[in-house]
Amino acid sequence: MKKHRLLISAILLALLQIGFLSFIIAGRAAVLRDGQEVLLKVEPVDPRDLLRGDYVRLGYDISNIPVSMIGNVPSGAQWIEAGPVFVRVKKDGDGIWKMVSASLYEPPSTPPGDDEIDIRGMVDDGRGLGRIDTLNVEYGIERFYLPEGEGLAIERDMRVRSFNIVAAIAGDGSAQIKALMDGDTMLFREPLY
Amino acid sequence: MASYGSRVRQDILRWTELGLIDKAAADALRRDVEANEQKSLSFGLVLAIMAALLFGAAILLVIAANWEAFPRLLRVGVLFAIILATYVGGALLKLRGNSATAEGVWLIGAAAFGGSIALIGQMYHLSGDETDAVLTWCAGTALAAAALRSGPLTVAAVGLAACWLFLEGVALWSETRVPQSFILVAAGLWLLSYWTASRASRNLLLLSLIFYATLLAVHHDMLIIPAILALVSAALFAIAVYAPDAVERIARIDGNMPVHALIGFLTGMTIIQFDLIDGTAPLVAAALVGFAGIAAAVVLGGRESRGLRWIAYLGFSCQMAFVYVVTVGTMLGTAGLFLASGLALGLVALVIIRVERRMNDAALPQGGAA
């Protein structure tokens, strides 16, 4: 009996861990499959230090948002707590989605219009509003993993040309990278699995 | 460790020849020594665990290198297969009495689980939540330890929890958050360590709690936190010295509680002194409390534990060096500094030698009486 118990726990444990991992994969794949596609402009984060190990660090034009764009900062507020922020982007003439407004902590009260969508990001550090007029927002898509050896060339090109990211936006606003674009050329497109 | 068993066996032989114990007692003692020897860390287990750590590292490195030769679904599949094969295979090995190998194989399984989390992060270009990933890995490993009743897996889970604490509290200095939930994680792992009978985990947990208090103190920069750490440690020390059996029954850490309490006390006092570094009088007062605590620790608990004595000496030397550099060091020229350092070091050596001699003298009559 004791024999069986250890074997059964081992099998259950393995299935539980594998199930948990599969569940995460399925969730991520669902975002890629069903999410709304948006094209975001990449801006180099730190031109000297883009390549970290096996991934490129990415920044976006929506990574720094002017405080004046945030609709619901109380007037006279001195301090902004760390927390989620919802950034509304709208498709521009050149196909790139640009920020139109933002809302701190909760989704904006008005639903997004045509060719608009809310992306969920995080303000990581609380900060005083005295001297700053922009907030740094992270979306969880600040990294692009590359096959070994291909990072350097991309890092070099990124300094001279403009790169874009195709991101898939889930219903709750979380973003996930779908493809890396060098201008109009697609460099990498991510399969679902 | 192995030499202890043979030493005791020689002693038992001598005691029987001297007529101190009869043959029945000698046999009973021998059986007890043998039974306990098997429980202690065997060489085989150590080797198996080292091998498992190497395999685990290999798995993680393969993931980290973004190994593009195989399609990612195949990579995920391989990792899943490793998870299933190691947990079940380890269980089969354990049932055949191959415990050491089983523990090693299970550790590989836990590494594969962590590797899968990293691989998913890489597949979907996730950024910014390494700390969550480590915590998830910790939870998965703790679950494995509970399901398989494995001591080494419990230690691994504690190590991952400490790693998580480090990543949250130290690695990103900008606006770090010391995770309050660490207390809950530590409490859960502590309970788990009873189920898996893992003393090493509990020792490690006590150390990581001291580390947690240190992070809190550094982060909030309030004198009250290290003061509480020092006081709680002193109280724990007193309880552990006056009611060693009760403490050991609850904590079950091989009587190491006084050692941990002393480490906690010294950590607290060190932080207090760094906070008070600007004023000489409070600094000296704090240093005196530190010296008094070390002396009390050696007097009360030093006889039973060599480890405690060495921690005390280490604390004493650091304390001396610290007070000395802050107060006297700045006033002297280079030559004077060396001279005074020599004197101070000599003083430390003298104190340690005297204490050790007294401990040995005190221990001798006990042995003679038996």
UniProtKB/TrEMBL annotation, chain A:
It holds the Pfam family GDYXXLXY. InterPro entries: GDYXXLXY. This is Membrane-anchored protein. It comes from Mesorhizobium alhagi CCNWXJ12-2.
Automatic annotation (TrEMBL), chain B:
Residues 14-153 form the DUF2157 domain. Keywords: Membrane, Transmembrane, Transmembrane helix. It holds the Pfam family DUF2157. The chain crosses the membrane at residues 40-67, 73-93, 105-125, 155-174, 180-197, 225-243, 255-274, 280-300, 307-326, 332-353. This is DUF2157 domain-containing protein.
